[in-house]
């Protein structure tokens, strides 16, 4: 094999400019991901159940920031109903949070699944 025909391995430095461009793009995407993750943590999503008799505010960090319960649904004889309403309100907010955060991340990643 002739030495002049070898184009692979370390002998071909023509692609190094592309590599630095890729690294710059990766760093830019990493920064955008960090900003978007912070924005998601700051989201506040409302969930409700029972025609609005139970309402809560769920943060992007999955913490409940507010919970309002109408007096009408507090029945000492039926605590399961109140439990169900709170659970339903939380689940509604959680689903909306998942949808919203996925949309926000897809804008940065172009829909490519990331390992986080």
Quick tags:
alpha+beta; 116 residues; Ybab, Chain: A; rod-shaped
User: Per CATH, which architecture of the domain at 45-109?
Assistant: 2-Layer Sandwich
Distance between the termini: 47 Å
Unreliable residue stretches: none
Helicity range: 40-55%
Topology:
Layout: H1 16-41, E1 44-49, E2 54-59, E3 64-69, H2 79-109
Antiparallel strand pairs: 1-2, 2-3
Question: What would you say this structure looks like, in words?
Answer:
There is one protein chain. By secondary structure, the chain is an alpha+beta fold. It has a domain at 45-109: Ybab, Chain: A, CATH 3.30.1310. Helix content is 49%, strand content 16%. It has a 3-stranded antiparallel sheet with strand order 1-2-3. Strand 2 (54-59) and strand 3 form a beta hairpin. Helix 1 packs antiparallel against helix 2. The longest helix is centred in the C-terminal third of the chain and has 31 residues, at 79-109. It is rod-shaped, with a radius of gyration of 25 Å. The mean pLDDT is 87.
Brief synopsis:
This protein is an alpha+beta fold.
